[in-house]
Amino acid sequence: MLMAIVGILLWWYTDGWIQTVRSVRLRLAGLFDYFSLDILLKTLFSPFRQISAGTVDGPLPVKFRAFVDRLVSRFVGGIVRLLVLGIGIVSIVVASVVGLGYIFLWAVLPLSPIVGLILSLLGWVPWTIL
Amino acid sequence: MDDSIEWNYHSVRAQKARVSVRLRGTPIRLLRVLAWMLLVFGVALLVLGVAFGWLVLTLAVLPWMVIKWYFGELHHLKSGPGNSVDSLLSGDILGQLPARPTPQDIASAVGSVVSGQFMGVRFGLTPSLLSHIASSEPSDTARVWQEAEHVRSAAHVPHYSGSVMAVALVRSFHDYQHLIAQIHLDDDDLLAGVRWQQHIRDLVTSFSRKKRTGGIARDWAFGYIPLLSRFGQNISQQIQGGDVLAVDVGSHVEAVAQLTQTFGARGRQNAALVGQAGAGKTTIIHAFAQQLLDGDSSVPDSLKFRQVFILDSSALIAAAPGRGELENLIMRILSEAYSAKNIILCLDNAQLFFEEGIGSVNLSNVLQPIIEAGNLRMILSMDEQRYLQIADKNPALINALNRISVTPATQAESMLVMQEKLLQFEPQRSVLYTYQALKEAFRLSERYLHDLGQPGRAIKLLESSANYHESGLVTMNSVQTAIEKTMDVKVSVASDQNDRERLLNLEQLIHERMINQKRAVQVVSDALRRARTGVRNENRPIGTFLFLGPTGVGKTELSKALADVYFGGEGKLIRLDLNEFVRPDDVSRLIADGVRNSGSLTAQVMKQPFSVVLLDEIEKAAPEVLATLLQMLDEGILRDEKNREVSFRDAIIVATSNAGADRIREYIDRGYDVTQFEAQFTDELISSGQFRPEFLNRFDEIVVFTPLTKQDLLKVIDLMIQGVNKTLAPQHITVEVDDDAKLLLVDAGYDPRLGARPMRRVVQKTVENTIAKAMLAGILESGGKLVLRREHIEQSLASRPTQNQ
């Protein structure tokens, strides 16, 4: 029994904690990949879905029209990408805060029964005070 | 004895392993329930304003911590430091062992864990077998540990898994070589099993790893591809959806690397995968597509997340039947692919786009400029023959392609591919394959399936074997049955009691329809017994015999009897009269393609490899024809005009010749026995120039048939009467011939030069005519019996026009 308690606590503050940090990191990396943040930054002002992309040969009005089309496509692409970039960054910030909280909580969790015991003995329940 | 192998029951890892085993299954489920109950109960108390709820709520943390510990550390206990047994032994086995384990204890633990059961199902090293062979003496355990270390280092695996321990237990058995031979295994197979189990474990780990896929905005900078989506197959999407499992073996890795290099560098952006069908060209394309989709792979950024599309030629032709329409459609698709900027277009079976035919169309004039320009990324795949054909017609096109050769896989590679394919087959077909089945599939496919390269042909056989599973298990027998049913051959060693009886009594069975020629019958029977018990060179025909002797002595009859008794019917006789192959250019007729000439030797044997091949009157064949047959006699292989290997290794080759028939009669008349003059007679055939020595040497046996005596002919008559009675059986009429009458028939039909041949004519014209007349006259009716006496025969013979003349 003693071995089991020592084993749990030893693992909890070594490999267990490392695993927790790793899982938070993986979650953040997954979010980063899901929102394609690196790709969005690299292609921020590229034409969206390649509409009107590429060089166009022809008379000046045709070339001008292609230029305008391309400009519109890049503008639309930029707006959509910036929007997704914003959502992605917010999601990652929230996930980071939650992750950091989880890592901290992991460290104090084994002490929670003692805290629970103290609170029980104190008889403190927030809504009864209110 | 290796003293460095230690066992410490009290080590921390061993203690953790025991805790893990105790927690496994129900206890861990109960802890989960307890944690939830405490959580819910605690919250409920707090909601009700009871402060005790804090304690209950926070106590839920304790079972939750145990659960976390179990899955985070105990469930897959990492190897410990050092090389002691308790450091390297798999935790699920370690936790079950007592302080002084016996091999029996180890066997029992191995039989209860997944990696140990793997060896039971795949290799036949079942828990009961392991328990049966394991000793119950604690002193024998050291040897098991030693063997485990030997297996671990030989198989290059990190720890003593259940599979390592199962093999170690087997190897600790005193007569283990005999034991594993009985289940068709050897030492290398056992090591392959350990590596296979480790490979599956690694695969599971790799699949559970989260991969970078590019995310939602991955393709936003690339174009729409509505036409391509309609006429092509998106391989990348299939892989992403988990539909395709790409394999990763040595020979393919190199080709994938070459593809990456070709498309990653500047230069013509195309590659031609050239290799036999079944060699893995499509698999390489899948593996390449998979690598491009893996954000963590080392492919250049210019290739990352590019999508591979396979163009469907039949869908294109169906959608645009007109010539101009099709070219227009192709141009639009290619233009779409180019504009999209993230497409790698693949023309699987590329010859379909470069030749006119059913389901194919020549689009060289559209595709060639694009391939030559090298701007659009394209992969073409085709077999060597088609590549050469295109090279012949259009060398400029071939010069524009970057060729990547795909060689057929080796046995080891094919086994790996098959093992990975099982991950797809087994859930689909609800079966499990044994390792022996895989090995047999490779061996038999090498031998009987010739149109595909490896590993394709072994996989094809493996797939069809699933239909012959035994209680959900695909075994070596299932594979043998599959090939026997599909190819109409017999590959299994005779094990059935009837089969054994038949083989042991072959001579008797053949003599039921053959008179005399005991030596010839003996020689061929021996050859068949050798073949069916596996005691023969498998790289040669079952038997090659040259039957020499006068006409009508039973040479052809013995071949027919063989086909009937052994191969299951006279239909299994492939007969070629070589007097029709007397000119040098007749060789082409002998090895003609089956499409052009279904009667050629190669075409017939390709259709029916398990047969008696009878080459009649071989002495009359042109020397060029005989030279062509040499390889067939020697190695059991003949190449047809399309250079395909045709196997004669399951056939009995019988060549017959009348050469020297007069000399044989002379020897017999002078009172010699066959065995006395056989060797001398063969020398005479060589010295007289009738046969070349290298040709005669190719035969397993040269058998001299002796002329039939009058006594023999009496027995021949009995066989013929039996035949007549068999014909009349549906009419319930029987015929008997008196002994006197038989003697008369023999006198009338005996001709030492022609053997039994005239006898058949005499029986036909006497016995059969008499029966026919009796039936017409109403003397002989259904259920009746006709006894032919000497006078009947005399009457018939007297009325024979030929006799009278």
Could you explain the architecture of this structure?
The complex is a heterodimer of chains A (130) and B (805). Chain A has one domain (2-129). The longest helix of chain A has 49 residues, at 60-108. Chain A has 130 residues and is mostly helical. Chain A is elongated, with a radius of gyration of 27 Å. Chain A has helices at residues 2-13, 15-34, 37-42, 60-108, 112-122, 126-129. Chain B is an alpha/beta fold. Chain B has five domains: 12-206, no CATH class; 226-405, Rossmann fold; 411-486, Helicase, Ruva Protein, domain 3; 498-704, 3-Layer(aba) Sandwich (Rossmann fold), CATH 3.40.50; 710-804, Helicase, Ruva Protein, domain 3, CATH 1.10.8.60. Chain B has a six-stranded mixed sheet with strand order 1-3-4-5-2-6, sandwiched between helices. In chain B, helix 2 (26-47) packs antiparallel against helix 3. The longest helix of chain B has 22 residues, at 26-47. Chain B is globular, with a radius of gyration of 37 Å. The mean pLDDT of chain B is 86. The interface between A and B is large, with 47 and 42 residues.
Q: Total number of helical segments of chain B?
A: 41
| Number of structurally distinct domains of chain B | 5
CATH topology of the largest domain in chain B: Rossmann fold
The residue-averaged pLDDT of chain B reads: 86
Which secondary-structure class do the elements of chain B indicate? alpha/beta
Helix content of chain B: 55-70%
The rounded distance between the terminal residues' Cα atoms of chain B is: 97 Å
Using only C-alpha atoms, the radius of gyration of chain A works out to 27 Å
Low-confidence residue ranges of chain B: none
Number of strands of chain A: 0
Strand content of chain B: 5-15%
Please identify which CATH superfamily of the largest domain in chain B we are dealing with: P-loop containing nucleotide triphosphate hydrolases
Integer count of domains of chain A:
1
Portion in strands of chain A: under 5%
CATH level-two architecture of the largest domain in chain B: 3-Layer(aba) Sandwich
Helix content of chain A: over 70%
Instruction: Tell me which oligomeric state these chains represent.
Output: heterodimer
Distance between the termini of chain A: 43 Å
Tell me the total number of β-strands of chain B.
17
